[in-house]
Amino acid sequence: RNGGLPAIRQAIDSAVVPGDVSLVLAVVDPKGRAVVGIAPERLAVPLRITQFRIARLGADELWSARETGYALHPLGSYWLLTGRNLDLIAAEERAIERALAVAVFLSLALGVVGGLVLTRYVSRRLDGIAKAIEAAGEGDLSRRVDMIAGGGDAFDRLAARLNVMLGKLEGVMAELRIVTDSLAHDLRSPLARLRTKTEQAVLIADPDAREAALGGLLVETDLVMRMLTMVIEISRSGSVSRDRFIEVSPANLLEEIGELYAPVAEDAGLVFTIAIDDRPPPMKLHRELISQAITNLIDNALRHGAGGGEVTLRIVHRTDGVAIQVEDRGPGIAASDRAQALKRFGRLDSARSTPGAGLGMALIEAVARLHDGHFELADNAPGLVARIVLPI
Known about the structure:
By secondary structure, the protein is of the alpha+beta class. It folds into 3 domains: 4-87, no CATH class; 154-237; 242-390, Histidine kinase-like ATPase, C-terminal domain (Heat Shock Protein 90), CATH 3.30.565. Helices cover 50% and strands 21% of the residues. The strands form 3 sheets. A 5-stranded antiparallel beta sheet has the order 2-1-5-4-3. A 5-stranded mixed beta sheet has the order 7-9-10-12-11. A hairpin with a 3-residue loop joins strand 3 (49-57) and strand 4 (61-75). It starts with a helix and ends with a strand.
C-alpha cells in the first residue's frame, strides 16, 4: 500500500512459485493492460469473475492455452488480478475420476472372482455333506463328511457333528442287527423247549407228572420273559430323562443292596463281604437303574464266580470318580474275551451251559453310560472284578 507498484511486484514475485502455473497474480491498469505480472489481453474491467485463456505463464514460458478463472479487486486506480488455473483442477478431477473408475472396476472384478471362489467352495462343502446324507438315506452309514485339516470353520464344525451323528447311528444300527439276530437265535432254544414240554404235558395222563411238566413250562416262560424285559430295560436306559436323577448316597445304597443279598450268598455257601473303603459324598443318580445294575453284578458273581467261595461288594472313592465293584474268586474272564462279554447277547462258551441271555453286562454298561461313567472288567487274580465307575 505504501511501496507502490515496486512493492506489489516484489510481493507477487514472492508469492508465485517458479514453474507453478496454477496461480495467476497480476496488476492491470484501467484499460486492462498488465502492469505487474501476466494478464490476458483485452481484459474487460471491472468484471468480478470470468474465464479467459492465456498463452504465456511465468517467466515467458510457453504453455498451451489453459482455462483460468479470475477475479478483479480495486487497487486505487489499478486492479489486482487473482486467478486459478481451472485446467489443472479439471485434470486433477479427471485423474480422480479415472482412479475411482479403476477402483470400482477392480472392486467389481475382485467381487466377481471372490464370489465365484466362495460359491465354488460352499458348493463343494455342501456337496460333500449332501452325498454323506444321501448315502445314509440309502443305508450306507459308513460314509463320512470330509473335513479340511486345520480349517475349523462353520462347515468343519457341521461336518464334525454330522460325522459323530452318523457314527452313533451306525453303531445303533449295528447293535440293532446284532440284537435282532441274537434275540432270534437265543429265543429259538427256549421256545423250542417250551413247545416240546408243552407237547409232552398234553400227553401226560398222570396229574402229578402233568403238574411237574407245567412247572417246567413256567420256568421256560419266565426265561423268555426275562430276556424280553432285559431288552426293554436296556433300550429305556438310553433315553431316561435327567429329571429322574436324585441325590443318593452310594455307600448307603450299597449297604442296602448288600444286606438283601447276604442271606442268599450264605445259603449258597459263600462268604459275602460289604467293603466301604471311603464314603463318597451324595451323587445325582437314577436310583432304580443303578440299583438294577448293582444287582446284576451280584447275580453274575453268584452265578459264575461261586466256585471261589467268596464275593465282595466294594465301593472305592477314586480320583476319577466313585467305583462300585463286585469281586469274586471264580474262573474270571480272559482279557481277550471281555469285549465279547460286554456285547448284547454276548455269551462266552463257558457260560452256554447256564441259563441267561447275555444281556446283564450290556444293561450295566448302558446304565454306566447314562451316568456319564463307564463299565470295566478287570482281573482279580484269581477271579473277576466287575466295576462301574461314576464321575463325581
